Amino acid sequence: MQKFSILSGIAAPLAIENIDTDMIIPKQFLTTIKRTGLKEGLFFEMRYDVNGTINPDFILHKEPYTKAEILVARDNFGCGSSREHAPWALLDFGIRCIIAPSFADIFYNNSFKNGILPIVLPKEQVEQLLQFAQSGNNIEVNLEKQTITAGNHSFEFSVDSFRKHCLLNGLDDIGLTMEKLGDIDNFEQKQQQVTPWLFKAA
Fold first, then answer.
1. Residue 104 sits in which domain range?
2. Disulfide engineering: 65 pairs with which of 9, 12, 84, 109, CB 3.0-4.6 Å?
3. What pTM value is reported for the model?
């Protein structure tokens, strides 16, 4: 998993409440377990019409937001089903941080596990960031200092210390397990002595 320390990038304003996971990645794109190639399905029903024609008015089809790395949205982002393809699609597009007043719990947890930083801010601060994002200028997110800088505005945010550690060090669940590899090897060696019959070849 890619480390997250300081992100300075374009923020796309998506001033919509209750963006659910089916809006983020519709069900027809859930046939793969690969984490790549899903960006084409991201917000598919808002980005294209029923004939597959690009909707030029959708924010991610406008410059400079085609290169957005941050999303600013409204309440209850990521509600709906628990599909992990939602953070996969966002990450495949290049989104590494989402700022909103609230998130659905499962999506919030899945984001951290996939290297995306979801930030909860008060509504009035999110509204300020939505307005700033319309300028197309970069927003800086500093995970170490837990600050967001947008022009002359600066906001502090909270994040669980363990999740912060994982993002700063690029540790997903597999990475966390690999940190304990020495302990795992020692345990297996002891078990081979205590219960050698469990390690005999069939």
1. 6-171
2. 12
3. 0.87
Strand partners, 150: 153
* CATH assignment of the domain containing 33: 3.20.19.10
Residue 58 belongs to a domain = yes
Q: H or E stretch including 178?
A: helix 173-179
CA distance 16 to 191: 55
The answer to the question of residue 14 being in a domain is: yes
Going by pLDDT thresholds of 50, 70 and 90, the confidence category of residue 173 is low
Q: For residue range 42-89, what is the model confidence (pLDDT) as tens digits? A: 999 999 988 889 999 999 999 999 999 999 999 999 999 889 999 999
- Strand order across the beta sheet in which 6-14 lies: 117-120, 97-100, 70-73, 6-14, 138-142, 147-150, 153-156
Do residues 149 and 129 touch, judged by C-beta distance below 8 A?
Answer: no
Token pair, residue 60, equals 């991610």
